[in-house]
Specification:
10 helices; 2 domains; single chain; Arc Repressor Mutant, subunit A; mainly alpha; 218 residues; Tetracycline Repressor, domain 2
């Protein structure tokens, strides 16, 4: 019998089709950026038809939004994969900061940062996607914990929402900014020192007089 060349079979499951399209789109966006991304190359990588792609995502911008939401939503796999355990404030904050930095310093998270720097002005509405999907939920976790610790008398946070923002600025901003501009990665020891020093400064600002001792930075 003569062999018949068959096309790649595309699943009829919407979830599987969506995942395959977004896998192809993310790889293309990460390789070329948004403006230079080719829907033809995305279609080839997807293995289905362009009609199928545009049935799920009518425009390239909608495809990018879905990629951003998927990457932003993955914070749960790193930060909250097993929940945040009940620990003393310092130990809890160290775990929280290290998990967030581990996620934000991943290649796909840094891709979003670099995309925002290089091409963010072209789609201002998408700037809110990351904030709604990742930034606010992460901030809310810390905000709730600060309020709980204040009620227990473990520290003093008069404005947990604002203090959560300042904590993230203090601990996250520097390492992420340096990584976005391809500066050398800090060693594990340097990163731990950065986290501990930042937490030291933060906790002394939220100290309950007489209850919080200065910790020695190792």
């Amino acid at each position: 019998m003569t062999a018949v060349k068959s096309k790649s079979v595309v699943s009829r499951s919407p979830e599987i089709v969506t995942a395959r399209i977004l896998d192809a789109a993310q790889a293309e966006f990460m390789a070329t950026g948004y403006e230079a991304a080719s829907t033809n190359r995305i279609t080839d990588a997807f293995g289905g038809s362009k009609a199928t792609i545009f049935r799920y995502f009518p425009t390239k911008e909608k495809m990018l939004e879905a990629v951003i939401r998927r990457i932003a939503g993955r914070w749960r796999e790193t930060v909250a994969r097993e929940g945040m355990p009940e620990l003393a404030p310092r130990e809890w904050l160290e775990l929280y900061a290290s998990r967030i930095l581990s996620w934000l310093l991943s290649e796909e998270s840094l891709f979003l940062g670099r995309l925002a720097v290089a091409e963010g002005h072209k789609f201002p509405d998408l700037s809110l996607v990351f904030e709604e999907t990742a930034s606010k939920p992460l901030q809310r976790i810390l905000e709730q914990r600060l309020a709980a610790w204040t009620r227990l008398g473990l520290l003093t946070s008069r404005d947990p929402k604002n203090d959560a923002v300042h904590f993230l600025d203090l601990l996250i901003g520097g390492p992420v900014s340096r990584a976005l501009y391809h500066m050398p990665d800090p060693s594990d020891r340097e990163m731990k020192r950065h986290i501990r020093r930042g937490i030291d400064l933060f906790l002394h600002g939220c100290a309950v007089v007489g209850k919080l001792r200065r910790s020695r930075i190792r």
